[in-house]
Amino acid sequence: MEVLKVNLKNAGYYDKKDAIKDIHFSILSGGLVGLIGPNGAGKSTIIKSILGLMEDVDGDVTMGQGSKYAYIPEHPTYYDELTLWEHIELAKAVNEIEGDGYYQEAEKLLTIFRLTAEKHQYPGSFSKGMQQKLMIIIALLIKPKLYIVDEPFIGLDPKAIKDFINLLKEEQRSGAGILMSTHVLDTAEKMCDRFLLINYGNIIARGTMEEIRGQSVSDGSLMDCF
Ligand code: ATP
């Protein structure tokens, strides 16, 4: 089952509609797709377009029937006036999640990510890595059919990276589709089934990492990114 189908053309900033030129791909249930490419290639713009955060994008984005999605942003976002636990409560209410199992799961994730002691503190006082962990915990609690993850490893300690990968793989095995933008290629290579190599707003190669390396050999400068 397709959880995401993307067909985007001509998106950008201000009057320049060239950050995305022609991007089309889909993600199946249980698929983990890595979005890779050099700085400025268009990866974040693709993610923003999928989330409906870009103006005047041509084309369309379809999420599978009933596909609830969770977005883990590159830069954590939070409410200054809410504590960590209140963020968790808010996510339950907004996503209309029933039952107390949610809170048990939340406690478990707080333990895994070593945030139990900070439960009643405000995320504004956290380090970037701790804020990122909160974004991850909330996404996992929502149990979406689709994860959209932008540069998840930056700022995370090695244990958190390992735990996050394991939890994400578990979600994948349960049928979630995942789109993950990253520069951490060795980790991505172990995780993703398929990659999309982006450059100047286009997909210039797609497939396994081995296939991508083969396809992008013609562009010497791009190979420096691997
Ligand atoms: P990185 O790996 O550095 O995060 P990226 O692949 O995510 O890069 P984007 O951030 O999508 O790349 O950038 C694509 C193009 O859009 C670049 O030419 C960039 O300069 C431009 N761009 C991105 N954000 C803005 C903005 N807020 N205003 C104007 N131009 C932007």
From TrEMBL:
Keywords assigned by UniProt, alphabetized: ATP-binding, Nucleotide-binding, Transport
Keyword Transmembrane found: no
InterPro entries: AAA+_ATPase (IPR003593), ABC_transporter-like_ATP-bd (IPR003439), ABC_transporter-like_CS (IPR017871), ABC_Transporter_VariousFunc (IPR051782)
Calcium in keyword set: no
Molecular function terms, GO-annotated: ATP binding
Annotated ABC transporter domain residues: 3-225
Pfam family for this entry, one: ABC_tran
Protein name from the UniProt record: ABC transporter ATP-binding protein
Organism for this UniProt entry: Evansella tamaricis
